[in-house]
Every structure is written in structure tokens, then in C-alpha cells.
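The pair is quoted verbatim as follows:
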Amino acid sequence: SLLYLLKKMGKNGEIVIDDFKIKEKLKFLPQIEYIKDKVQKDKEIIVNIKTEKTQPDSIRYEEKEKSLDIIIKAKKGYFEKNDISVSEPSLKYDLIFVLDTSDLDSLETLFENNVNFFYQTPIINIDHHSNNENFGQINLVELTASSTAEIIFSLFKKQNKEKEINKEIAELLLTGIIDCTNSFKSLSVTPETLANVAELISLGADREKIIKHLYQIYSVNELKLWGRVLARLKEDLNGELVWSLVTKEDFSKTNTNENHLEGVVNELIVNMPKTKITVLLYQYSENIIKIIVKNKSNFNIISALSKYEPKGHNKYFKIEIKNEGLLEAEKEIIKKIKENLDS
């Protein structure tokens, strides 16, 4: 929706998400197929040749099966290896919007592979999470907003762009709000949120269609997986902490995979009123255990598990443990979380 607004303002832009794969439930969104998984670099590469000692007489190239030789002939003398340097292709952007992200490390390889680009390019940071590190040159972090989508809608209104919000933009924004609030079950929903939702519906967003795609999508196999998760459900701290385990056999027997677990976590934390922290541990491979943590408490759980290099933010993040079994990982992680809650 932000890209739509920028394009209407005559700006060119692209959406990039690290390791992006379209979730089945989001395939109905307009133009989602254009989201890229890496930043686009300039197609030109520059070869720099020092000419203090000698000068090029001719330049030619020879194509080989999987390479290209560039042959430079000197007028006099000869070139040395240190006379030639190659610059990396430049990135073609002059401004970065980072959305719904607490810190740059959470962008994973997108940041890791382009550190200089992120440090040399102005950043506008838009988020609603309390642990946001305000890493941008401009930081729009609204803790009372239900979602980043709601903040974007507020930006539209502040720029007097409501007339430019068509059905597609309204539907994108409403999808963001509904998904982030678990269909308005989250405590972050405010009267202003509901007013914004009503306005988006009046602008053409189809709430019923969004709900159908986001929530009325579970197959028999997914429900079988849920049954296995619920059968192993454990609780502590008077029900404020709940967790469960998923084995490779569970995935195999139900013909599902790790992508089907997000719905389980959301449903558990929404439908168990006392629950503040939900943890789901699953066997990713023989020597890797992955863990999903959903947190609606005020405790800084992500810091308690920082040694595992969590990916995400304090309300929802993932970690992995190597060279441990499922039961050992369970004991270790639950102990760490309980220690943090008791302190």
C-alpha cells in the first residue's frame, strides 16, 4: 500500500523481503507476485585501470563457456595486477523505508549482504513495536497503533491522499490490520483502529473476502496436525506460559510442514485468555530444532533468548538450536523463559 502511494506521487520503488515466499493465504493480494527477495544492483560494472606508468592501447574481450576474458594491451611497458581494480555494482535506490522491523539485523541477509548500502542511504523507519531501536534518520514508531498498516493509513490521511485510495489499496491496508490483530482479537485494537477499519471498508475493502482468505483456509491435514500439537500441550505459571512439541513424524503422518504451524500458534494464544507466551518447538532436521515464540506479555523474552540469535521482534520471533534433541531443547528453552519471568 505504501508503494502504491509513492507511485501516485511519481516515485519509483520496489518491495524487498529477505527470502520471500508467498504464503498461500496471501496470494489473493494485488501485485504480491512483484515482491523481490533481494535488492536490485546496477547492471554496469566498472573496471578501473591506473595509467600513471602506462596506457591502454587496445581493449578486447573473449567469451568462454562460463566466463569472459577482458584483454587490455599496453602502449608501452606492462600492467601489473595492482593497476586494475573492479568496483561492485551500485544499488539504484536513494531512500529506504523499513516497515514493521525492530532493528536492521532482523532484515537478515538483506542487511548482512548490503551493510554499506544501509549505512549510507537515508532510512525511514515505520513500526508499532515497543522494542524498535529507532535506527532510521526518520522514525515513525507509534506504540498505540494496532499495526504498521494502520500507521501507513494515517500517513495517507495526513498527506490528504484519501481520494487516491482505491479498492486495492484499502484492501491491502485492511488485510494488514486484520492479520496483525488476529481479526481484532488483539489487545492492541483501539477505538481509533475500529474507526480506521470502518473508513477502509467504506473505501471499498472487502472484509469478508479478507477473513475468508486469512482464516477460513485450514485443510483436514492441518487440523490433524493441530490435534497432535494440542495432545502434547503443556502449561506453567498458572497458564500464562503454554508450549508444545512437533516431531518429524507429525509432519509426515499429517502430510504437512513447518509453514502450517503459524496458524496453530495464533489460535492458541488468541483462544486461551490467560496465556501470555506460546512456544512451539519442532524438529526441523535430525540435528536442528526450530522454535516459534509468540508473546503478548510485557516481558522482554527476546532478550532472554538472545544467545540463540532470534529473528523477529519481542512479540513474535523464531530461534533454532543445533545438535540437540527435541526434549533437550524443550527443557533448555522453557527453563530460560521461566527464569526471565520469575526475575
In short: The chain is about 35% helix and 20% strand. The longest helix spans residues 326-342. The mean pLDDT is 86. The first strand starts at residue 46 and ends at 49.
